[in-house]
Amino acid sequence: VQCVLETGDLLYLPPGWGHDGVALEPCFTWSIGARAPHAAEFASVFLDYLQEHRLPAGSYRDPGRAPARQPARIDRTMLRHAESTLARLRWTRADVAEALGEHLSAPKTHVFFAPPRTPLARAAFRRRLAVSRVRLDPRTRLLWHARRFFVNGERFSPSAGARAALVSLADRRSLEGARLARGPRTDLVFDWYRRGGLAL
């Protein structure tokens, strides 16, 4: 199927439809996709998370066993050890939310941030923040679930007083800086600013 779009037209392609777009004249085209990981992709991410946070400690041991007559055979002892290790794997909904938040907020490998060429010092940033509007960089992903927040693949738990402002920033992508110019939240957004994750 071939479609020729005119100014202001929008073409919707359902997920999984291959396509090839060609510009017929000078123009801007934008391709916008929702980030929804495949089941196998997230399963792999979650197993990595479990390995880092929840995998039971302990190596295989078999003291007192006689040398194997068939050394290439995977025997029952080894199978029982593997089964018992897997049976001890446990996770909670919070673990799933953490792994998902880190994964969905992580920038893709080709995404790089541009820090400010002449960054403000911390004290100057704090003064400017109080009278400016904060805008997240288009590449920044700030997500939240309950008390946990995730920015560009890193998780953090802000104080109760900072959560409402950070939820607004995450949902609206911009916010009056005065709402962030108090306490530890200032240090947080200063760090994002220095990395190029937001601008004033």
Describe this structure in words.
- The protein is an alpha+beta fold and 200 residues long.
- The chain is 38% helix and 10% strand.
- It contains 6 helices and 6 strands.
- It has helices at 39-53, 76-87, 93-105, 122-131, 160-172, 184-195; strands at 133-136, 142-145, 148-151, 154-156, 174-176, 198-199.
- A 3-stranded antiparallel sheet has the order 5-1-6. Strands 2-3-4 form a 3-stranded antiparallel sheet, sandwiched between helices.
- α1 crosses α3 (93-105).
- The model has no long low-confidence stretch (mean pLDDT 90).
Condensed summary:
By secondary structure, the chain is an alpha+beta fold.
* Share of helical residues: 25-40%
Largest sheet: 3 strands, antiparallel
The value of Rg in angstroms is 25 Å
End-to-end distance, in Å?
Answer: 45 Å
Mean pLDDT value: 90
Number of helices: 6
> Strand percentage, roughly?
5-15%
Given helix and strand content, the structural type is alpha+beta
Task: Tell me the total number of β-strands.
Answer: 6
Question: Going across the major beta sheet, what is the strand order?
Answer: 5-1-6
Instruction: Report the principal-axis shape.
Output: flat
Elements, N to C (H/E): HHHHEEEEHEHE
Low-confidence stretches: none
